[in-house]
Structures are given as C-alpha cells and as structure tokens.
Structures
1.
Amino acid sequence: MAHNSPSQNTLLALARWRWWELLLWALALTSPLLLSSHALIINEIAIVALFALSLDLILGFTGIVSLGHAAFFGVGAYAAALFAKFIMPDPLVGLLVGMSAAGLLGALCSATILRGTDLTRLMVTLGVGLILMELANKLDWLTGGADGLQGVAMGPLLGQFEFDLSGRVAAWYSLSVLLLVFVVARRFVSSPFGATLKAIRDNRLRAMAIGISVNGRLAVVYTVAAMLAGAAGALLAQTTAFASLDVFEFHRSADVMLILVIGGVGWLYGGVVGAIVFKLMQDAISSITPQYWTFWIGLFLVVLVLVGRERLIRPWSWLGSKAQKGGLK
C-alpha cells in the first residue's frame, strides 16, 4: 500500500475543513433570512469579499502587486450587463460570460507581469485599468458612457427566483457564488501547484533553479485571479441591473488592497474578514458623517498598521493563527 509523503500529508491537512468553518459558512448563508433588512449590504460584502479573494491569489500567494485589478472587475461587470441586455438575461450564463471575458483579458495581460520590477507592474496594471475606463467612456453607443449602461433586466435565478427589491435573492446568489469560489480556490492553493506559487513568492530565483516553470505558473494564476475578479464584477452588475464607469475606477483597486491590509494576505479568509470589517465600517461611519467617512477609515488603517492587527483584532488574530497551523490557506 502506498503511503503519503510528509508534504502530501501537509497539503491534505491544508485542505481539511474545520468545524467552525462550516458553522461560519452556515451562518453566512442564513444571514439574508436572519438579517433580511440588511440583505443589500450582505450582498455587497459577498461581492467585495470575492473581489478581495481574487486579488489575494496573486498578492498573498504569489507576491504580485497590482493596482489595476479593477480592470478585470469592470470587464466582468460590463460583459455580464451587455450579455443580459442584448443576448440573454439568464444570470448564471451571464456570470460565465463575465468570467470568460475577464479571464481572456487576464491571459492577455499576464505578459505584463512576467518582466520588470514591482514598480513597473504597479504602473502597467494601473495603466490597463485607466485605458479600459476611457475606452468604455468613448464607446458610449454601447456602454452608455458616463451615464452608465441602463435598462439591464435580469431573468429569474434558476428560472424560479426573481431578484427582489429587498435584495435577499441577490444576497443568496452572491454568497453561494462566493462559497463555491472559496472551495475551489482553497483546493487550488492547497494543491502542489499552489505550493509552487508560494515558492515563487518566497524566492523566484530559487524556484527557477529547482525547475519550476515560473512564467507559466504566474500566467495561470493571473488568469484565474482575473476570472474571479470578473465574477465579482458580473455579480455587481447582475444584482444592481446597472454598470457604469465606476467599476473601472482606481478607488476599487485601492479599496480591495485596503481590505487585504485589514484582513491579512496569504490566507483566503483574509479577504472575507477584511470585506466584512471594511463594508460595515463604511456603512456605519458614512451614516454618521457622510463627508468625512474616508478620514475615519484612513485613521483606522493607520492605527491598524502602527498597533498591529493581532493586538487590535484579537478574535481574528486567533483565527489567523489557526489558519497558519491548521491550514486555512
């Protein structure tokens, strides 16, 4: 009988689910029913968490810094919205179309991250996002330009569940997609392929020296991350029945970076935790002081960096330590 090697046992441990994870996801999926009056913000949190998870694949697990991740988010949003308006209103098919369009763009743009330093990657990824935003603005006959793409009507989910004004169907839809993507991403980063990504992150030259195809793996993970970002953009367009130039804005890329700063990089729950904290703070502070809510979030981030995440947010630091030891990456 064949026995697993220590490295294989480690990867299996990384992929194993813990009881408290199942409890957390069960609570998340029931939250639109338990907190029906807050279904809209639950939907937003799920979409932002998915977007953050996609960035963490390249930032936390591969070490690629990007300021233009909103480009894939925006392409997914417009692809899903245009598909629903002009071809077919089915949400699931539209979601696949948005992911495919973003993945194609990611595959094309992957060549930009294979050369140069982190600074050049930052500038190139930022430039791609700005180019796409200007392109969407100029093609106003198709995208609606600055007014946005209006008149997007979504069909019922699975042919039965109509998107309601309360946002409960939208929240369940986004949470279900987030859970499915999380499960797939978990297997992805816990696989031997994911182990090679971490090796590239830690020391690219050493990874090349032991025979890892660095460029091929970077292209694959960048394309996968683009697809997941496109899925988040498609969910936003479908659940709001609207797509505008805002999906390409720099602030979306900046916000998702801040979310990972809050939640932590290199473990998939970091994007989920960061999205919850960021969106709840944004909603609470903006209701108190609409003009200065960014100041208070900025102050929180400064304190977070100076004091340390572990000291400031004890419960999440405990989950983070469990993740490192028990394999929540």
Note: The chain has one domain: 12-249.
2.
Amino acid sequence: MLAKRIIPCLDVKDGRTVKGTNFVNLRDAGDIVELSSRYCEQGADELVFLDITASSDNRSTRCEWVKSVSRAINIPFTVGGGISSIKDVELLLACGADKISINSAALSRPRLIDELSYAFGAQCVVVAVDARKEEDGQWYTYVKGGRCRTDVKLYDWVKEACDRGAGEILFTSMDNDGTHSGYALEPLSVITSMVDVPVIASGGAGSLDHFYEAFAAGGAQAALAAGLFHYGQLTIPQVKKYLSEKGIEVRL
C-alpha cells in the first residue's frame, strides 16, 4: 500500500503566505521561507505553493519566490499560478519546482494538459480544480483564484483532465475552504472512484478526524491543509501519529 501524503499549502500573495475563508477575506499567515522550512523539518511529504493572484493579474508566478522556497526545503515541491505554456513550466522547474499545478489556463485551453504531459511527463502535471456546489445541485468549476465561475461541471472536467494526461488531481471545495468543517467527502469520493490518478483532498481540514475521513471515506491519496498548520492548531507530526494509530499508512 502506498503511504498517504500530508501536504501543507502556501497560498502566496505579494510574496507572503495568506489564508482566507471560501477564497475571500485573506489574512497574513507568515513568511514563505520560514513556513516552508518548518514544514520540511516536521516531516511534510510535499509542499504546494500557489501564487493565488497570478492568473487574475495576467502574469506568471514570481520566480524569485519559488527559488527562495526551493532552497529551504528538500521535499517534492509543486508550484502553481499563472502557468499557461511550456516555457512557463521550464522556467519554474529551473527555479526549483518538481511539479506544476495548472487550473485557469487548462480550463481556458484544455489542450495545455496534453502539451505539458507530453513535454514533461504526466507525473509533473497536477491539475487543480476549484469547485462549488450551486443551487441546481451540480458542482461547477471556478477559475482566476475562485473569482469566476465556469459552465464546466466538476466531474466532467476531472475526467477530461485525466484523459488528457493529468498525473494528479488537486480538488478544492470552495464551500469548505477555510471553514475547518472537514473535507467535502461526497464529491471527493466520486472523484477518487472515477479516476486512476492520485487525488489530493483540499479545503476544510479542521481536526485530526478530518484527515482520517479524507482517506478512509473519501479515498484520497493525499490531504492538503493550510491555515490549520500555519496558525499552529495542529502539526504535521500530530496528524501523522493519529493516522498511523488509526491504521492509515503514512511516512513517520
């Protein structure tokens, strides 16, 4: 059995880590290098770095920020924000990223997934999917850091992304984000049952049980959290110890 991964996430704005609720009301959460070093020392399996205003500002991720974090850690490092071309990915990999995460540009031009998977290998391509359940009962995808809704339905898009060569899906429920109410288990379990690639659960972690539920009920291969770790409510060793005691395979 593959070990389940615990992944802290840095949402970065103006070179600082920030955290909000439901993608709004952002507040400062700390220095990107300081937090990255802490999580690496605590035994994080990977680190995700998302430049959350890159797409809405129509720019690429700031490479100097990526370099500073890369120098501080020795774990797999995924970077997202404003990526729209092979050239963007080449630059970020040269700056120290191991994988890249795409969202808005992929929904705008789905063939980007094919191009990046062919050029760099599927294992390098994480497709991030931000979604919210609407009044019609359907889950719809959002772009531009959660600012703009699309007419593309969550499950249709996840399937297409995997068919095009995504190596991993990072699913964030916007309704659960920052609420500490737990991951959105219903859509998470649907996604994990319909694709053959690893799925990262994101949005809503607030307790040790929530991590367990993401794996045991949601079928996720990894669980991502941000504010819970940034503000010290839980540490990565606490989460891993709890999961191990509950029979979930993790790297201690």
Note: The radius of gyration is 16 Å.
3.
Amino acid sequence: MSLTVASAALDVIEHDDLAAARRVVSQESRALARLAEALTGRFVEAMELLAATRGRIVLSGMGKSGHIANKIAATLASTGAPALFVHPAEASHGDLGMITEADTLLMLSNSGETPELADLVNYATRFHIPLVAIVGRAPSTLADAATVALVLPDEPEAGTLGLAPTTSTIMMLALGDALAVALLERKGLTAEDFKLYHPGGKLGRRLIRVADIMHAGDALPLVPVETSMAEALIVMTEKRLGCVGAIDAQGALAGIVTDGDLRRHMDGSLLRRPVSELMTRDPVTIHGGALAAEAVHLMNQRQITSLFVIEGERPVGVVHVHDCLRAGLA
C-alpha cells in the first residue's frame, strides 16, 4: 500500500471516529434536555423524602447502574447529605444490616426488573423504609414498589447497536446530581461547610481562609513606630518572617519594614534610625476572613512575600507566601 493510500485510509478512519463521537455526545445531550423538561412534582416528592431522612441515603444498583449509584452516593456525602452505597449482592449476604429504619433507599435500574434488587425491595417494604427509584421503565417491579419513582425519558442508548448502557446511565447520573445539588441548596450549605467535607482535596485547599494559616499571637513581629531599627532588626530576626510591623499609640498598623527596605537603606546610620523613617506607610493588608487564594493573588500582584492581617486597623496576624505553599495554594 502506498503512503498516499495509507494516509487516505487514516483520514477516513479519523473522520468516522469523530463522526461517531459527535453523534454519541449529541444524542446524550438531547436525552439530558428531555430529562430536564420531564422533571415534575415527582422530583419534589423525592426531594421531600431525601431531605426528611434522619439517617443516611442508601444507594444501590447492579452493573452499570451500580457504578452510577456509587458515584451519586459520593456526591451526596460530599455535599452534606450522609450517604453510602450497598451492593445488592452483598446486601443479600448480610449487608442489609447496614440499612436502618431511619434511612432512605435510592435505587437505580434501567429495566426496573433487576433481580438482584429483590431482597433490598422486600427489606424496604418489610421495615417501611422510604424507597426512591430511578428507573427507565414504568410500570415495572421496582417502579411499582417505590415510594416515589423517577422515570427516565424513553431515549435509545447511543451507538449503532444501541445496547450498551450509555444514554440511560448519563441521565441517571444527571438526575443524581440534580438531587444532590437541590438538597445542598435546600440546606443552605456554605463554602465553609463544603470545606469541612473536602479538607484534603483541591477544593478544600481553595476554601482555606487567611486566618487558618496566618502567624498570630507571640509569632507576630510588631514594634512601636518610634523603635530604633537596631531593636526592630532583633524582632525581625526572632520572628523569621522577613518583616516587622510598626504600630502607633492606638495599636493601629502604621507601616511595615521588610528585608527589602533594609537592603535599600543600608548605610552606617541604619541601626540608629527610627522605624518610622524606613517603613512603608499604608502597606497592603488583608482580612482574616479572606480566602487564602486571595492572599496569594495579592502577593503575586504586588511582588511581595508577606501580608499583615488586620481587624479594623489593628494587626492580628501575618501570612507569608511559604504558608500558602505549605497549604498547597501556590
């Protein structure tokens, strides 16, 4: 085969691959649009059950539906709604004991006839545990047994065969996300609450406040404005933050002296001069409630390495760029 023919063949394959990919994405997008339009008061009924749950939201599903259920459980838990996934096969061999009468079941099945879910359905019925079902067909065994059934629009699976769970699972996932976010907004979850559930992740780091990482109390390098540079230099050396704050008689931050100021004013009289002669007046400051990411932005913008943290006009802390690095913010 010549290079020209081989190149033409590759172009055809690439064109076919891209066409297939675009067809799948377009098909699934249309299904999601239909899902949004199909939401009714049944969604609100499901929300009432989930919001009233005194225990946990227990998710289950088999096969691909199970994978989606597992992800929805993780999303619910990370947004303030205690949740866990129970595999239906394991449930039949002892894990039913993980489910209490204070819980609510959220079960996924495209057909609504998944036999592995039977024991979970019977358990919910026996102990009057609320059951929300996300199903692709109604009537069906699961839809009929559910307290509230959320039925997906009748949309074909993606691809020429239309067999592999694709469109159905993307709708299940979107519906699970819709429930999680609606619960989050109903509960009024704040960014600070969200940080509690994500202390080790990138999202948690982005929500760290300046007050969480600043140096305060005895670690704060402060001297009165009339202090000599000889004394101020001792404080700078002890506190090891590369700066010292100068406060006036009312305790307000009047200025700041940095390592850079020392280098710029280095001469024989430096140590005898008062801090007030060298300090930068009206320095850049930040509040303790500000996001630490904002402190990083300010330091990068002003090309400085530290910021004094103030309440009113009084200094209460110092945040250094190294503190931000340790917190994974820079």
Note: The chain has two domains: 3-189, 210-326.
4.
Amino acid sequence: MIAIIGVLIALLLPAVQAAREAARKTQCSNRMKQMGLAIHNFHDSLSGIPPAQVADFRRSTMWGLLYPFMEETALYERIVDPSPWSTGGYVTINSWWNSVLKKEERQAFGAFTGYQCPSRRSGYSANDYATDNNDNSDATNAAGPQGDYAFICSNATGNWWGMDVNGTRSPFRTSIYALASSAGKNITWQPRDTFAWVSDGLSNQFFIGEKHIPLNRVGICPNAAYSSGNAANTRNMGECCYLRNGASRTTSAARTFASYESYAVSGLTQYAINAYPICRPNDYSEDNVPTHTAYHSAYRSIGFGSYHPGICQMLLGDGSVRGVAVTTPTRILQAYSFVSDGEQAVLP
C-alpha cells in the first residue's frame, strides 16, 4: 500500500508543478496587462507615451513614472520630491536611495510586486548593497528595487543602443525636459512622442517583455564599475535598480532585440545591426565565458527571456500579451522592435 501511494505521489507531482506554473504564468500575464493599461492611461492623461527616462542618467525611468498608474502614488512622490536636489527631483541615484530615503521607504519600493514575475521571485527584492554613493552614468551598482520586466529600446542608427534620442527606433525615448533653475524647484518635462510615433501600428510593436536573468543570478547586482573586460559584471547588470537606465550599457530597465553597434575586428571597425534571440534561463549562467564572446554575444544581459518553459511573454502596444516562443526567428523579433520599419511580420 505504501509503495502504491508513493507511485501515485510521483505521478501527481509533475501535474501539480505544471498547474502551479500555469497559475504563475497567468499572474505574470495579468501584471503585464496592468502595465499596458497604465501606459494607455498615462497617454490619455499626459498626451504621450511614457518616456524612457525623465532626463539624464540620474533621473527616473519609465517604471517610476508609471507608479501613479499602478496605484503606487506614494512611491512616485518619493521620486518627485525636489528638496535634496538643486536640479529638481526625479533623481534615483545611490545617494538618494542610501541617504535620503528612510528604511521603511526603501522597503516600500522593494516590496512592490507589480513589476515582478512570480515564476522568478516574490516578496521584497531590492539592491540594498551599494557600498558607496557612486552615481556614475553607467549605474552598474544602481541601488533600488529590482524587477523582471524591461521596455523595448532598439537602435537602427548611432552606435550602441542607449537612450540616444535620434538613434532610438523603439517606442520609448527620453522626455523633453528643462532642469530646474534654482534649488527647491522641480524639473519640468513632457512626453516626447504620442502613439503616432509607432507608425507600424500598436498591434505590431513590442512595448515590454520579460528580461533575461540567468539562473542563479536573481538578486545579484555587481556593485562595481562597468568594464567590458569583466564578463560577470556585464551579465549581472540586469539585476540592478530598474529606476535607472544609465548613459549606455545598463540593462536593468530596458532591453533590446536589435541594436546598431560598432566594434573592432582584426583592427578594423565594423558596423552592423545585431539581432538578439530570446534567451533561455540557463544562457550564460556560468562564469568561464571568453570575454569577447560574452561582450558581443546574443546571450549577454541585453536580451529578453523568462523562466516560463519555452516562451517569453511580451506586451504589445495595443495592450495584449503574447507568449512568444524562444525559437522565434530574430528577423521577426527585430521587426517587432522598430516602430517604423514598415515590415509586417507575423508572430508564430
């Protein structure tokens, strides 16, 4: 009898695990739909798409600007507060997190689950371990809340895939802004683009996706200056604070399926639009990867990918969520990354 019970439990366990994962995937999809609704409500209220970031690398990303539309006005108000900053609020650098916020305020940011996928994490999640007030533009040790989603940022022109306004061909670009003229006053800004910027159509455009974080690296932020020669730091950058973009290669808030890059090969500068596939959970979870391969590989931490078996969930501009197969050709992923390439690709 005991043996029979053991066999039945062994047979039932995979089914139970599959049911739990199905529930987690549904919850993840519902959270992404809430993000889509928040983006549309933002657009209706402020007449534009939420900007990738308010201004320079020290300012809040789109994720902070969406807080009021995700029923988290209190968190938004802690970003807006201009009192410590002569240049006018929306600052999310380490010294703001380490010194300005009270302990309970930091806990409130880290406890917000709206930007968390339940298949990857639950409960409090934040980089509380930035050992100094290093506020450099690459923000590889950015202190603050951690999450599981990234907005699309793809470049068709200009080197690399950062927040360059002219090179970006994805929905989210830096806002139009003016810094405060004196202490105690706030920065003024407005969205740069409306939905008309997405000329291929909202139903043909990725807005947000689950970002790739390799197995065993959840919660790890390198807390070190960026170095192209340090592959481990580069891959870990995706688990720093999602409230910061950095000036170039920080990948906590945004990811790409396609980027225009220049790099040297045999002493000659090469230029190309690189396309990146959807990552599997174990892609680049190891440490002994050749530096050059890790730096230029499709499986670096600039990619999208989830812990859901076989798919990565993506939010489209029309507010729908699709489970996109990890085997989807990069040509299709690239087409859904650019707002105005005119290519009518079809997701499998």
Note: The helical segments are 2-46, 62-65, 73-80, 94-100, 103-111, 231-236, 291-296, 330-335.
